[in-house]
Amino acid sequence: MTRSDKPEDLLGISAVERDTGLLKETLRVWERRYGFPMPQRDALGERVYPRAQVERLLQFRRLMDQGWRPGKLMALSEAALQALLASSAGAAPPPEVTAILDTLAARDAVAVRRCLGNRLARDGLARFVLEYAIPVCVEIGQAWARGDLDVGQEHLFTEQLQNCLREAISQTDIEASRPRILLTTFPDEQHTLGLLFAEALLAPAGARCSSIGASTPLADISRTMLDGDFDVLALSFSAAFPARQALSGLQELAARLREGSEIWVGSAVLAAKPKALPGVRYLARMEDTLSALETWRDAHPPAGPAAG
Amino acid sequence: MTRSDKPEDLLGISAVERDTGLLKETLRVWERRYGFPMPQRDALGERVYPRAQVERLLQFRRLMDQGWRPGKLMALSEAALQALLASSAGAAPPPEVTAILDTLAARDAVAVRRCLGNRLARDGLARFVLEYAIPVCVEIGQAWARGDLDVGQEHLFTEQLQNCLREAISQTDIEASRPRILLTTFPDEQHTLGLLFAEALLAPAGARCSSIGASTPLADISRTMLDGDFDVLALSFSAAFPARQALSGLQELAARLREGSEIWVGSAVLAAKPKALPGVRYLARMEDTLSALETWRDAHPPAGPAAG
DNA sequence: GCATAGTTTTGTCCTGGACAAAAATGCGGC
DNA sequence: GCCGCATTTTTGTCCAGGACAAAACTATGC
Questions:
Q1: Which residues contact A157 (CB under 8 A, 6 or more apart)?
Q2: Does residue B32 approach strand D to less than 7 Å at its CB?
Q3: What is the DSSP letter of A45?
Q4: A7-85 belongs to which CATH class?
Q5: How far is Cα B116 from Cα B100, in angstroms, rounded to an integer?
Q6: Which tens digits make up the pLDDT trace of A172-225?
Q7: CB-CB under 8 Å, A108 with B228
Q8: Which residue is nearest to nucleotide D23 (CA to C1')?
Q9: Where in chain A is the domain with CATH 3.40.50.280?
Q10: What's the pLDDT tens digit per position in B65-109?
Q11: Cβ contacts of A14 on chain B, cutoff 8 Å
């Protein structure tokens, strides 16, 4: 019943959806509006995409993830497009960052893990995250946008980094100290690396972290907060998350939580909006997590837990 | 631009597609043909599915995975359907499984972790996975279906289980032995627990596992396989994953991989289909992973790797 | 009893229209 | 001159109903 097993380098619309992440509906409406992609038709009149068009679509997707819009890109000449792809490179990364890119180029999981492990052992968890892991992630994102790295390589890196961090976090003491912090993301937000970074900073600083992974319904977030006697809810948002949805969700949560508990919002994007909500604190950069912890501790001295 | 943020327990068609694995087109054509599901409409005239209908759809999917066809199921009376479901329900869970449900009811992450840790220390990784973790996951799934557990509690459990497993896996030796196994899932398949279970069985048995997480594009899977000198590709599919998509993807991959390399497909659903593909092996249950490893080693004796 | 031919079921594709959310742009007040 | 708000453009996702091949089932002949 499937019609995607085309003999040559021609892909059916389902296969293109799978490979590019663009919905069938989007592919059809682009064809209607912009004249691209313009697939051939098979004997049944169904769309068959040559590989070249699929690769062009992938280039478009990379540029769109950087903020370009389809209409602009479609109007571009071939030369202008290539220039854009070339220019998306940022400043030259430091050599310690490029070193790990080489291990990724070889898809050598063991070497990646060794790189990370060495660095972590040398610098400790906090410096490892702030000075190494985050810059590397940024650079990998750019390499992906340039087409120098594919999703498989990005996954390989993420997996090793996760293992590395989780292992290190699990080795920190679970003290009975405060604050107790619940970490999660909103529904449809899958990006868990931000949570893991935050946990990696907070746990060794003595905060009791409980991560419940990504994409938790709002009702369950507030229920967990109330049941679990948490002081802080830490939420992570990727740049792509719709700001409106985030803000309305935050408003709802802020209203529902226990008096005295805080929400920390990790997002480079939302922090720009000055919408002040009571009990909500925006952390524009990852290092702000630690200052937030300090501030909280200043306001809640361990001797007298009576206030609340 | 997304319209999935419905206030109550009403899901848009995209959310239903995501949760049930039934394509939007299938949902619409069922409505047209059978009159079910018959969603409400919002102010815009767009389909909004009450939770009850989504759960009924999930029931249908489970039965269809057992070989039932939609037309038959739709014609069934409520009583007949319930009888069918009851006959497929498992036995009552053992007390050791229900014990952890109590800690989840209290949302006590530390207690959950302690439960898991104790059990793991007692039984070792393989027995822990097969005799404890998997039954608990099944029971949690049923508790969720009954409404006894919310998503937040499920997440809490999953996170602790992941930590537990990853830690244990990372402590196994990385031997230079064979086979080398690449683990991942197809695009849009987010379920990573299956991968982690497989890794937890394979790694202590001396197989060199590399997981690259979920949702990897097919092209990247085959590229990683070829670059990385892997012997086996292990793929995990949840029950919700569209079987057709899985099969066409497997066909594509099988054709592209190096001669002599195998694909192991972990799925309770696909294993029923007798569609034989060269080099593809279906593992209906998690314990089959270990017998697959044995079979592989019998066919590839370490002394003489000359045989193809 | 089994293979083959015919029938029904079922999933996926098609066209072309619509519309709200997001992004970009224009405009007025400090 | 610059920031905040209103307006316009862009863009992704939804809809209806029709079509058809692959798969599943059924009937028929040897």
A1: A100, A104, A112, A136, A140
A2: yes
A3: S
A4: mainly alpha
A5: 9
A6: 977 778 899 999 998 878 889 999 999 999 999 999 999 999 988 888 999 999
A7: yes
A8: A1
A9: 177-299
A10: 888 999 999 998 888 888 887 776 666 778 888 899 999 999 999
A11: 245, 248
